[in-house]
Amino acid sequence: QSYCHRLQHDMYFLTSTSRLNEQVVDKIVLQLNRVYPQILTNEEAEKFRNPKASLHTRLSDLLKHLQKKGDRHCQEFYRALQINDEQLFNDLPSRKILKTSDPTEIDTDKEQYMLNDRGPVFFLACFSVAAGLALCWYCWNSETQVTGRARRVLGFSPIIIGRHVRNICLLYLEDILRN
Hints:
By secondary structure, this protein is mainly alpha-helical. The protein has helices at about 5-15, 20-35, 40-50, 55-70, 70-85, 85-90, 95-100, 110-115, 120-140, 145-155, 165-179. The longest helix has 22 residues, at about 120-140.
């Protein structure tokens, strides 16, 4: 993808909600004006550094001007942005596309979503089945005297499990004691 297309793609991101402050824009304009090859002439640099115009307008005009000039000019803009604001450069939408375009690389945001797509109901269902199996295994183990302790636990658990389930479990435990 050419730098002009990338700049067109990143234009809204760069101009929205004042991501670039005035000092960084001035540094970028000065760098494009002073560094070889000279991207902006002195007159163009003064135009894009004019404090009378709003920052949004100056930045939009600068990006459109660079797109008209060609790919080399857009590439130099990206280099100046990287030098003057590394964090913003790494957050650009076109950079994120380039980072995830490698087929061997795993997109961590997507992977995190894929691991959590079942939700809390699935977790509660699995946990309930595991807890029920553990309780049954513990109660049916003939080596331990479980019924008295289990009866006390179940007697104080109307909040955890419903009354009907508690009553069924207590009846079952009484049945085991009789046998």
